[in-house]
């Protein structure tokens, strides 16, 4: 009879193999995309002719150029998509997931397991096997409520029963440890994770959100939100999580270039640039207050002594 640990290790091994196969497929697709780009370049230099001798020739030339432009646009879109998928896959290969919730849906007798990670992942058979920590169903994990509960998806409240909440310590394809818990902060392993997260650029803070923090992160009923707390209470981690959450849940309405983060100094800027990718998002525009003023009030600041002028951002 296999133990829970052996079962979880077997599941992890299977998922890791699927991720590895996906990465290989992405690499092949990138290679094919690169070859297609070289083919288009050859067509442009060797076959495309600019002929403007007559009105009919103009139309033919413009049509040929438009066709080439569309092919280039499609290649660029595919390139960006493959890069994003590869980044997600590489991140998941470091730690495929960090938690599992076991749910029972109404009118069903069998329970279902949902594994949560820094990004969602659907294997090559089209089966979703990892769910993004920001997905609606992940809210059940962060609520930490056992028994009958619910989550909201597509404007509907979905009733479920939470039977198990399991947290993992994973390195690549190796299961280090796991524990089942009701209140995360009471578990000594979780406390160790919290302590480690403060010294490793919070790469694991997704797994240690408390219920109160989750309420702040997923708050969508207000346009203004002030986070207050004592030193070390998790204010910074909460705001990072909230930014990543909003960019995920409001992807159609909120673009990355519409988010501005104002940092106290450049050291904090570098810190942000390393944390947000671990949460599944690219870093938005990030300026210090001095850099922001330099862009908004360049003429007014020009009269200041050089020593008092803000440093112009390099990007």
Summed up, what is this model?
The chain has 315 residues and is an alpha+beta fold.
Brief descriptors of the model:
single chain, 315 residues, alpha+beta, 3 domains, two-stranded parallel sheet, 9 helices, 46% helix, 18% strand, globular, disordered C terminus
How are the secondary structure elements laid out?
Blueprint (H helix, E strand, L loop, with lengths): L3 H43 L8 H40 L4 E6 L7 E6 L3 E2 L5 E5 L6 H5 L3 E7 L2 E16 L2 E7 L7 H10 L13 H7 L17 H15 L10 E4 L2 H13 L6 E4 H8 L1 H5 L13
Helix pairs in contact: 1-2, 5-6
Describe the overall structure.
This protein is of the alpha+beta class and 315 residues long. The chain has 3 domains: 4-90; 99-249, no CATH class; 258-315, no CATH class. Helices cover 46% and strands 18% of the residues. The chain has 9 helices and 9 strands. The chain has helices at 4-46, 55-94, 139-143, 188-197, 211-217, 235-249, 266-278, 289-296, 298-302; strands spanning 99-104, 112-117, 121-122, 128-132, 147-153, 156-171, 174-180, 260-263, 285-288. The strands form 2 sheets. Strands 1, 2, 3, 4, 5, 6 and 7 form a 7-stranded mixed β-sheet that branches. It has a two-stranded parallel ribbon with strand order 8-9. A hairpin with a 2-residue loop joins strand 5 (147-153) and strand 6 (156-171). Helix 1 (4-46) packs antiparallel against helix 2 (55-94) and helix 5 (211-217) packs across helix 6 (235-249). Residues 184-191, 197-204 and 306-315 have low confidence and may be disordered. Residues 210-260 form the UvrD-like helicase ATP-binding domain. This is DNA helicase (N-terminal), authentic frameshift. Keywords: ATP-binding, Helicase, Hydrolase, Nucleotide-binding. One of its GO terms (molecular function) is hydrolase activity. InterPro entries: P-loop_NTPase, UvrD-like_ATP-bd.
